[in-house]
Amino acid sequence: MDLNSVIAETRNLITSVANQLSAAGANPEQLAVSTPARRLLGAFPLSASYKRAGEGFLLGALVVTTHGNVFEPGLIIRASLKVLPGHQAQSAQERVELRRKLLAAKFPEDSAVLIDPRRLPIDDLEALAKENGPLVLREIVVDGVRTQQLLVRWMSTASDSDLRPLEDYLNERVELAITGIAEA
Predict the structure, then answer these.
(1) CA-based Rg of the chain, rounded to a whole angstrom?
(2) FRET pair for 123, CA 20 to 30 Å: which of 10, 35, 93, 134?
(3) Contact 79, 22 (CB under 8 A)
(4) CA-to-CA distance for 169 and 184, rounded, in angstroms?
(5) pLDDT value at position 82?
(6) Which residues, listed in sequence order, are joined to residue 164 by a DSSP beta bridge?
(7) Bridge-partner residues for 29, per DSSP?
(8) In the chain, which ranges are E strands?
(9) Over the stretch 49-100, which tens digit does the pLDDT of each residue have?
(10) Which pLDDT does position 87 carry in this prediction?
């Protein structure tokens, strides 16, 4: 199998998974990119903010889109003004401020937002072979034949021997998500 067909099959798999979730009624998470604090026209300060970068479905260690892209999730937070009563730790207060900034950036109330997700290089198998993140390309032996396969590191501390094939991982996660939607 050549490089282009591997990339095309991977994109088709990811697109198919995202479309299955969409058809089942799953709500996509919002993808956001941080914009640093800056000055407008050199004089007016603008605070750090967030802008939309699309939508995707969170499937454990991966985020898949209907465009065939796959991301490492980044920081996950809900855009909401709901706060728990009582004393809050500094980290909780920082999350409240972050939620306010997401709402100010026009993300829908109560939507899950993935801040600064990292696009995984599925078009560059050489880069995936060097990856240590959630999606990697590794050489494995199947029925005595050495082959390269896309594998998922479902937990950041998982060793290479604990990796799961991408297709198996996505199928399992989709089945769990669709079952959860049906039971809700």
Answers:
(1) 19
(2) 35
(3) no
(4) 23
(5) 72
(6) 152
(7) 56
(8) 29-35, 38-40, 44-46, 49-59, 62-64, 70-72, 75-78, 112-115, 118-119, 135-142, 145-152, 164-165
(9) 889 999 999 999 999 999 999 999 988 888 877 766 666 677 777 888 888 8
(10) 61
Any idea which residue has 């465009």 for tokens? 67
What parts of the chain have a pLDDT lower than 70? 1-3, 83-88
Token pair, residue 34, equals 């941080």
Q: How many CB atoms lie within 10 A of CB 36?
A: 8
Nearest to 71 by CA among 138, 135, 149: 135
Strands 112-115 and 29-35: parallel
Dist. CA 151–CA 145, nearest whole Å: 17
Phi, psi angles (nearest 5°) of residue 134: -75, -15
DSSP annotation of 158? -
CA distance 45 to 53: 23
DSSP 58-98: EETTEEE-TTS-EEE--EEEE------SS---HHHHHHHHH
Closest C-alpha among 82, 74, 66, 80 to residue 31? 74
How high is the pLDDT of residue 2?
63
The residues pairing with 77 across neighbouring beta strands, listed in sequence order, are 113
**Separation of CA 148 from chain center:** 23
